[in-house]
Each structure stands twice: as structure tokens, then as C-alpha cells.
Amino acid sequence: MRMPLFDDRIELCGNTDIFFDRCRRLLECSEMLVLVETGGHRVAVWGHGLTASDYADGGLHVSGRICALEYDGGL
To answer: Would you state the CATH architecture of domain 11-68?
Structure first.
């Protein structure tokens, strides 16, 4: 039986938007890097002109030109 990597959902829309359902922590946020902790994992979003919003609602919306995603494999 395959186990999911995340307890939470991440949705990537093209190369301009990414949505995290339940972002536990916003670790870093700049125009080039948004680093989040979600589902016990760290995910780095690399790009240009990145902004993060909707953090107060428990989710996170990252927008801008997304160039790469990095997943750490677990904390």
C-alpha cells in the first residue's frame, strides 16, 4: 500500500501560482525564494517576483514566476 508523502495538499497552477492547504510555518519569503513547512516537510519555491499571501487563513498562496520546487524528503 502506498502512503501519501504529505498529509496536506499542494496545488501547482502553471508556473505562476502554488497553493498550500495548511502551511504550518512560513520560514523565508523573498522575491526569489519562499520556504514553507507543511505536512512535516520543507518545500522551497524558487522564482522571480514571488509574493506570499493568505497566510492568516492557515493556507498559503505563492504567486509570481515559479522556476523550481525543492522538497526536502522529511524533517
So the answer is: Sandwich (2.60)
Amino acid sitting at position 33: L
- Are residues 61 and 52 in contact, defined by beta-carbon separation less than 8 angstroms? yes
Ranges of each domain in the chain: 11-68
Of 13 and 3, the one with more pLDDT: 13
pTM: 0.83
User: What's the pLDDT at 75?
Assistant: 47
Q: Of 69, 72, 65, 54, nearest to 17 (Cα)?
A: 65
Strands of the sheet with 17-20, listed across from one edge: 10-13, 17-20, 60-71, 41-53, 33-38, 25-29
Ramachandran category for residue 36: left, alpha or beta (phi over 0 → left; psi -120 to 50 → alpha): beta
